[in-house]
Amino acid sequence: MILELKRQGLGVSAIARQTGLDRKAVKKYLERGLEAPVYGPREPGERLADGFRSYLAERLEAFPGLSARRLHREVRAMGVALPFNRLCLNLCGGTVAFSPATILDRLGRTWRA
């Protein structure tokens, strides 16, 4: 589309106004031509919960009835902004394929509809 507008004789600023893109983006696309953008796979980043997996396992082994809320408060008090749902997924094995009832069962809670 951008190349077609350029072939019609429009300038970079006019193309930017018409497409809603930034002038620098239009210029970049024009310089690249018909070449498709190349995206590579991302490097897996360090997960915040991985550093606390052993701590959580130790706490649950020492106190099996410990709630996820209590563990979340302890981790927050250590200065880590770990979201509660990530903590729960970490406690459940780190998978997202669980239903809410299964997650609560593994955490020792009951499901209230």
Can you characterise this structure?
- With 113 residues, this protein is mainly alpha-helical.
- Helices cover 52% and strands 0% of the residues.
- It has two domains: 2-32, no CATH class; 48-106, no CATH class.
- Helix 2 (12-19) crosses helix 3 (23-32) and helix 5 packs across helix 6 (84-91).
- The longest helix is centred in the N-terminal third of the chain and has 10 residues, at 23-32.
- It is rod-shaped and about 75 Å long.
- It starts with a helix and ends in a 7-residue tail after the last helix.
Gross morphology is: rod-shaped
Tally of distinct domains: 2
Give the averaged pLDDT, no decimals. Answer: 80
Q: How many separate helices?
A: 7
Query: Major sheet, described briefly?
Result: none
Q: Which segments are poorly predicted (pLDDT under 50) over 5 or more consecutive residues? A: none
| Total number of strands | 0
| Distance between the ends | 51 Å
- % residues in beta strands: under 5%
Radius of gyration: 25 Å
H/E series, N to C? Answer: HHHHHHH
